[in-house]
Amino acid sequence: MKIAICSDHAGVEYKTKLISYLLGKGYEVLNFGTDSTVSMDYPDVAHPMAAAIEAGEADLGIALCGTGNGMSMTLNHHPGIRAAVAWNVAIGRLAKEHNNANVLVMPARFISYQMAVSIVRAWLTADFAGGRHQRRIDKIPL
């Protein structure tokens, strides 16, 4: 499975560590940046990552920024993306089970790195429940 990943300057430290974690679990990782703590604009990395997922170049995506809000707002402007902000394990798991989120967004300034790993693990191992949840997703305009 290929996982695309991106961050702004606030999330770069966690992104770098998560890349190593994911590679160690056998995932292929596509890094869309940034790779610096120098202030930058999150849409500059979010849009290319979303386009890669929409094009089938990656199966899922993970994004990090200070609050998670900017990344999720940007990513959700892409019709093929369902980005969900998660700040704990239950939210991460339910993002997949109920919303079939194909991008996980985390607020790097508000969670620990260990929490980020736990959220990623819960999201990656969860399965979409379908049923009434699919009906709800079908009502989200593209």
Task: Name some characteristics of this structure.
globular; 142 residues; five-stranded parallel β-sheet; alpha/beta; 17% strand; 6 helices; Ribose 5-phosphate Isomerase B, Chain: A; single chain
Task: Summarize the structure in short.
This protein is an alpha/beta fold. It is built from six helices and five strands; from the N terminus they run E-H-E-H-E-H-E-H-E-H-H.
Q: Can you characterise this structure?
A:
It is a single chain. The chain is α/β, with parallel strands linked by helices. The chain has six helices and five strands, in the order βαβαβαβαβαα. It has helices at residues 12-24, 43-54, 69-75, 89-97, 113-125, 132-138, and strands at residues 2-7, 28-31, 60-65, 83-85, 103-107. Helix 2 (43-54) crosses helix 3 (69-75). The protein is globular. The model has no long low-confidence stretch (mean pLDDT 97).
Q: C-alpha Rg, in Å?
A: 14 Å
Beta-strand percentage range: 15-25%
- Can you name the CATH architecture? 3-Layer(aba) Sandwich
Could you name the ranges where pLDDT drops below 50 across 5 or more consecutive residues?
none
Order of helices and strands: EHEHEHEHEHH
Helices, by number, come to 6
CATH class: Alpha Beta
CATH H-tier superfamily = Sugar-phosphate isomerase, RpiB/LacA/LacB
Number of strands: 5
What number is the mean pLDDT? 97
Please give the domain count.
Answer: 1
General form? globular
Describe the biggest sheet?
5 strands, parallel
CATH fold naming: Ribose 5-phosphate Isomerase B, Chain: A
